[in-house]
C-alpha cells in the first residue's frame, strides 16, 4: 500500500536507503512501515506548530521537483483536518479522542483557557477561544493563518453552557451568557470561517453545530413543563442559524447540520442537578456519544444539509414518545422535528 510518511530529522540517516528505493520507484513509501503512524503524527504536529520544518524534511525525501507537489497533494487529500470548538471537557474532549484515534486525522482543538492541554501526536490545541466573545473568530483565524491551515474538512462546535431557570427564577444575565455561547458565538464563528477564503470551507467540508433536542419546539410537552428559557430557546435559535447558514453555503457545497448528541453524563448536566436523571433517562458517557456522533458525521453529506439529527435516536429524549410515538418504532439515527 502506498503511504505518505515523514521521519524525524534524526531518523533520516538511518532510513535513507528506504527513501531512495521509494523515490526510484516513483512512489512515496518512505521510512519503515512499522513506524508509519508515528511519522505521520510527527509530520502533522510539525506542520501545525512549525510549518517551516515540513519543507526540509520533505525535500530530503524528494529527488525531483515534481515530487514535492505530488506529495503535498496526496498529503492534503489523505489527512483530514477536524476543528473541534469547546474541546477541553465532555463531548468535545471525547470527540478529540475519537478523531485522534485515526492517525491520519489532524485535530485542531480549541480551549477557552490560555494554557490548554498539551498537544499530542495529531492534536494541536488552540488557546484563548472563548466563543461567547467577539474576539474568538479573529483569534482562531490568526491561528489558522499562522499555521498555514488552508482547508478544514470537519468543523464541530460543541462549546455550550446550561443554567437552569424557572418562572419564579429567570435570569437575564444567564440568558445573555447562554445566547452568546450557544448561538451568537457559533454563528459568527462559522461565518468567519466561510468568509476567510473560498477554500477553507468547500464542497468537502462539513459543519456540525451541536444543538440539543431541547431546542425543538415540537418536542416540548406538558409532561416536561416549561422553564429553562435561555437554554432551550438559545438552542432553537441555533437551529435557525443552522438552517440559514445551510442556505448561504449550499452553492459552495458546504454541508451544515444541527445535532442532538444524546443525554450525557457530563459536568453540564451534573452542574444543573440532572445527574439524578442519568440512570432513568438513559444518559451515556461522552465517549459513547462522541463515537455515535463521529460515525454519523461519516455518513452526513450535502443531501442532509440544513437538517436536525439525533445520531443516537430517541432513546434519551424524554418527550419523544408522547409526540413522535413508540420509541421502538422510531429509526436510529432519527431526524428531529424543528
Ligand atoms: N450533556 C448533555 O446531556 C447534552 C444534551 C444535549 C446537548 N448537549 C450539548 O452538547 C454540547 C457539549 O455538552 P457537554 O455536556 O459536553 O458540556 P460540558 O461537559 O459542560 O463541556 C462544555 C465544553 O464547552 C466549553 N465551553 C463552555 N463555554 C465556552 C465558551 N464560552 N467558549 C469556549 N468554550 C466553552 C467548555 O470549556 P471549559 O473547559 O473552558 O469550560 C467545555 O470544553 C453542548 O453544546 C451542549 O449544549 C449536551
Topology:
Elements: H1 9-24, H2 36-49, H3 54-61, H4 65-78, E1 81-85, H5 90-100, E2 106-110, E3 123-126, H6 136-146, E4 154-157, H7 172-196, E5 206-210, H8 229-249, E6 255-259, H9 267-271, H10 286-299, E7 307-310, H11 320-324, E8 334-335
Parallel strand pairs: 1-2, 1-4, 2-3, 4-5, 5-6, 6-7
Antiparallel strand pairs: 7-8
Helix pairs in contact: 5-10, 6-7, 7-8
Bound molecules: NADP nicotinamide-adenine-dinucleotide phosphate (NAP).
Provide a descriptive summary of the structure in words.
Helices cover 43% and strands 10% of the residues. Helix 5 crosses helix 10. It has two domains: 69 residues, no CATH class; 256 residues, 3-Layer(aba) Sandwich (Rossmann fold). An eight-stranded mixed β-sheet has the order 3-2-1-4-5-6-7-8, with helices on both faces. Helix 5 links the parallel strand 1 and strand 2. It contains eleven helices and eight strands. It is of the alpha/beta class and 338 residues long. The longest helix is centred in the middle third of the chain and has 25 residues. The N terminus is likely disordered. This is NAD(P)-binding protein. It comes from Periconia digitata.
Amino acid at each position: 500500500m502506498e503511504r505518505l510518511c515523514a521521519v524525524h530529522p534524526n531518523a533520516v540517516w538511518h532510513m535513507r536507503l528506504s527513501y531512495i528505493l521509494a523515490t526510484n520507484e516513483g512512489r512515496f513509501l518512505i521510512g519503515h512501515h512499522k513506524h508509519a503512524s508515528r511519522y505521520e503524527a510527527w509530520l502533522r504536529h510539525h506542520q501545525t506548530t512549525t510549518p517551516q520544518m515540513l519543507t526540509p524534511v520533505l525535500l530530503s525525501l524528494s529527488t525531483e521537483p515534481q515530487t514535492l507537489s505530488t506529495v503535498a497533494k496526496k498529503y492534503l487529500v489523505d489527512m483530514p483536518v477536524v476543528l473541534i470548538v469547546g474541546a477541553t471537557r465532555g463531548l468535545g474532549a471525547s470527540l478529540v479522542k475519537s478523531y485522534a484515534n485515526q492517525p491520519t486525522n489532524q485535530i485542531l482543538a480549541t480551549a477557552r483557557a490560555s494554557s490548554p492541554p498539551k498537544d499530542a501526536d495529531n492534536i494541536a490545541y488552540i488557546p484563548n477561544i472563548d466563543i461567547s466573545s467577539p474576539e474568538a473568530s479573529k483569534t482562531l483565524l490568526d491561528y489558522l493563518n499562522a499555521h498555514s491551515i488552508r482547508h478544514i474538512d470537519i468543523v464541530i462546535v460543541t462549546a455550550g453552557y446550561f443554567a437552569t431557570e424557572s418562572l419564579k427564577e429567570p435570569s437575564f444575565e444567564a440568558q445573555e451568557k447562554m445566547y452568546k455561547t450557544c448561538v451568537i458565538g457559533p454563528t459568527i464563528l462559522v461565518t468567519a470561517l466561510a468568509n476567510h477564503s473560498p477554500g477553507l470551507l468547500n464542497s468537502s467540508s462539513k459543519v456540525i453545530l451541536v444543538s440539543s433536542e431541547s431546542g425543538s419546539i415540537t418536542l416540548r410537552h406538558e409532561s416536561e413543563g416549561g422553564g429553562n428559557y435561555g437554554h432551550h430557546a438559545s438552542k432553537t435559535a441555533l437551529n435557525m442559524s443552522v438552517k440559514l447558514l445551510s442556505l448561504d453555503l449550499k452553492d459552495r457545497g458546504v454541508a451544515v447540520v444541527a445535532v442532538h448528541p444524546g443525554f450525557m453524563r457530563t459536568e453540564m448536566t451534573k452542574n444543573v442537578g440532572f445527574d439524578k436523571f442519568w440512570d432513568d433517562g438513559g444518559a451515556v458517557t461522552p465517549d459513547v456519544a462522541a463515537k455515535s456522533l463521529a460515525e454519523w458525521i461519516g455518513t452526513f453529506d450535502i443531501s442532509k444539509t440544513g437538517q436536525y439529527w439525533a445520531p443516537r435516536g430517541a432513546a434519551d429524549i424524554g418527550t419523544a414518545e408522547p409526540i413522535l410515538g413508540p420509541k421502538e418504532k422510531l429509526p436510529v439515527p432519527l431526524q428531529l422535528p424543528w
